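Students often ask why we bother encoding 3D structure as a string. The short answer is that it lets us treat folding as translation between two languages. Here is a chain of 310 residues written in the first language.
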Amino acid sequence: MKITPFWGSIALTFAPTVLAQGLRQATGGPEPTTTVQWYPTPTPEVSNCTASLITTLSDYKDPGPEFAVASSGKAHCWEYCNAHQPCNFVIFAKGNPYTGTGTCWLYPGENFDESAGTTGSDHLSVYNKPECAEATQTSGACTATASPSAVASVCGYPTPDDDCFYSCAASSGAADCLNQCADADSCSYAVFNPHNPSNSPYASGTCWKYPNGTYDATKASTCSGAPEQFVYDNPCPKASSSSSPPASSSSSGSSPSATGSTSNDAKAEGATQSSATPSADAKGSAHTGHSLSNFLAACVAILMWQGLRR
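And here it is in the second language, the structure alphabet:
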């Protein structure tokens, strides 16, 4: 008896569907055409960059961890390549097929090597150097710093004379280091020290700026492995600026007197106004004095009147 209401509710739940199906069959009505969208459709990508597909691969040599970034799609991958020069090709690794997201692989300064990959699927899409409507980002003192070319790759080169007190700074890469050198008031050459897993000059590190002189190869030591320092000459050194002439003595001399006279006039005007206009405290005191005098006079008059009555 207790189970009957439960089964009754189930029957009522499906009754509309069953009745509708029976009605369609009886009248020859059309079958329902509504489909259920189980997965979202990827959002169309909009980009100022275009790139041609070179090939598709199932695998390729891994980029450094600092060169594999999450990407919203292949167009974003092209833009990322364009913004991180030098970038001669880029690989988009598919991630979620329903959203179009994935991973962008960069290989700065390298060319695509077909022998380093394997075919068999289209998991990896290899694109050539993107062409973008907007110019490649070359922020800094001069465009020559966008694609730095090292004059030497060494190890053990000493720090600047100030032992990095003023002349060393963190840097996002060799291009940024060369920008810092070009922006400095005095910088003859710079040494970039990569501090990243790939030991690459295109990732983070430290920048040493040498205010004068030239690179001295005799101060570097022999590398036991890969180079640990990259040396760059400043392509845009600043011209030595002459000292600006001192300010005119007449102008500086007249300013204090003018200021002093203005100050004295203001003081005199303030004193005149102060003497001519009574303050609020003075007005209050005078009003209180008058009220007290009137009160005493009234008291005296009452006492005299009472005395006369007696």
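Translate back mentally: Confidence is low (pLDDT under 50) at residues 242-264, 266-288. Keep this in mind for the problem set.
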